[in-house]
Structure formats: C-alpha cells, structure tokens
Specification:
about 140 residues, alpha/beta, 3-stranded parallel beta sheet, two-stranded parallel ribbon, 6 helices, 7 strands, about 45% helix, about 15% strand
Length: about 140
C-alpha cells in the first residue's frame, strides 16, 4: 500500500522546524510517517517564514527543505485562481485564508491526500463541495 500524499499546512511546518513549540514532537512523528515530497503552497511558505521570524528563528531550514525536495509547492495560484476564489467565497464566513484554500484545492487534485494541520477549520472545509478532507492533526484518532 502506498503512503498518502501529505499536504502541509503552516502550523505543522512551523512546529517541525521550531523545537520547543507545543506540537513539535507530534509534527516530527507525523513527518516520519509520510514519504517526501510533502506538498504545500506559497502562502503556507510565506506564513511559515513570518511565524518562524516571530519566534526568533531563521527561515534557512525552511529553504533547506525546499532545496532538498522534502517539501514542494504543489500548485500555481494563477492557474488555480478560479477554484481558489470559489472556495474562499464558499467559506467567507470563516473567513478562509488563501493558504487554507490552496490546501483544500490540493486535496481535490490529490485524491489520496491527507492535510497535516493544527487548524480546526479543516474539520469544516469540504473538497468537491461535500467530501470530508482526510486530516492528520493532534487529537484525531489514528486510523
């Protein structure tokens, strides 16, 4: 059986890169279960760099993961803008971030994907309008 595609949200990426944060150990264990590359999007990378800096950390380890192909940008915002806009309109009452919309769209593109997240909004978001998005997040029962 092949491992599912891992779709990487900001929280687990920051937690993986910044030891001492609440979910660091969880993020490290989850990364061990998935085969690279983990897919993400540019808004997640921007949020991660910002949050690492806010934690007093450097973004070099983030770029090292990109250089080594461990994480990879999995979609073009420009190419997916119609679908991203529709998602953000559908969930404007949350309100949905561009990073979240990109991850939902990636989960639509990659049917076997699981989103690694700390964001409880992913329990509400649906792919293809009504399908639950498979998640890996702290506190969810293991499958």
């Amino acid at each position: 059986m092949t491992e599912p595609v891992g779709l990487l949200d900001t929280g687990p990426l920051v937690s993986f890169l910044a030891s001492g944060l609440e979910h660091h150990e969880w993020a490290v264990e989850e990364w061990k279960r998935l085969r690279p590359p983990l897919l993400t999007c540019e808004p997640v990378l921007a949020e991660t760099a910002f949050l690492l800096r806010r934690e007093g950390r450097d973004a070099d380890p983030l770029f090292a993961l990109l250089d080594r192909g461990i994480i990879r940008v999995g979609l073009s915002i420009q190419e997916q803008q119609v679908d991203l806009r529709a998602l953000m309109r559908r969930y404007r009452n949350r309100p949905m971030s561009l990073a979240d919309a990109c991850l939902v769209r990636l989960s639509e593109i990659h049917a076997a994907a699981e989103v690694l997240t700390l964001d409880s909004d992913f329990r509400i978001y649906r792919r293809h309008g009504n399908k639950v998005i498979p998640l890996r997040m702290p506190g969810l029962a293991e499958r």
